[in-house]
User: Fold this.
Amino acid sequence: MQQGTMVLIAAMILTFVLGTIHAFSVSLSTLEIVFNTSRTYASLTYSLALLSLTVGVLYGHRLHHRLRLVLLVILIECIAILGCLIAMIPTNLFWVWLGYSVVFGFANGLGYGLSLQMAAQANPDRTGIAIGLITAFYALGAICAPIPFSIALDRMGWSGMMAVQIFALLLGLPFMIFLLRASGFAFANSHSVSGDQTSVYCNRSVVWLWFSYCTAVTSGLMVIGHAAAIAGTERAHLYYANAPTVVAAFNMLGSIFCGWLTDKVGARLLLLSLPLISAIVLIQMVYGLLSQDTLVGLAIMGFCYGGIITVYPIFIAKTFGADLGAQVYGYVFTAWGIAGLLGPMIAGIIYDVTTNYNGAMIIAGLIALTSTIMIYFFRIHRQEPCSLV
Assistant:
């Protein structure tokens, strides 16, 4: 087995066991009962976890050249397990926030960022499909986790769900250690990330990318975050139940296909077209042919969103180089954390005011179109003094 393939499989395992964080919603009612709290406070657990995850991606690159890859993976797993153990303390919701949201969420961000970087660097000739598989397996973890989590919640409560999460982390660890040791892969030596290399690129370029990424994922999350409700307002209850699964499945398909396609046609063309397709679909869902079959529109939105979150790290790595690219992606990824908090909330507010999702989908379409326009005018500003630190 080739070195790049072994590293890629190890990264896929890591993202799969960490992607379970996005199946958190199955535990909401249990948390409400166990800790006698409201839905607002229970759901805050996930919101805080997303913030901590974003911080992990932002600062994780600093560890890539300080520890051997095997030790780094072990460290991430240990932090994640520690977070789950803290969250099992049954006294009050504070321990859940500290353990699951802060500690486990931070480890999640470290692992996700590391997986993207090691998969890309170990597979320079197939970066697109490598990153596509990483984002797809991250989504797959969220798709597979609800069943075992639900069983554990029914039989053992919140602590049982944390026990299942710990078991998954421990189960995948020996395979990752074996693959990484056998591959002999190590990150390339750092080349002064905070010195001369960063001065080549102006902060304006990074800020421009941040806003283009933010508008792209905000439009997707506005719709995906309310997928079941959007389907339920238009069609039968069966559509309501199937919508999140359909969106997640097409999310995975978009990640893999767009990752592969990036290696063939380049990243920039996809970053121009995917938000544009999203905007067209959203308008169609309100006024056009897709208004008669909302589930098809949601599937296309899931596909485009999966492609967007896959192609951006590829574009950044190819634009800024592997070493600086990891740092730039950390900054740009903070846009996803903000979009994850604001996008679904904005859609909910618009629904409360208008009693339907038409206004939210129109606004989401305009936001997506903004991303396409920003990528069209994006340029690297070279030879201007600035620093990313």
Summary: The domain at 196-376 is CATH 1.20.1250.20 (Growth Hormone; Chain: A;). The chain has two domains: 3-183, 196-376. Residues 191-200, 234-238, 383-389 have pLDDT under 50 and may be disordered. The chain is about 80% helix and 0% strand.
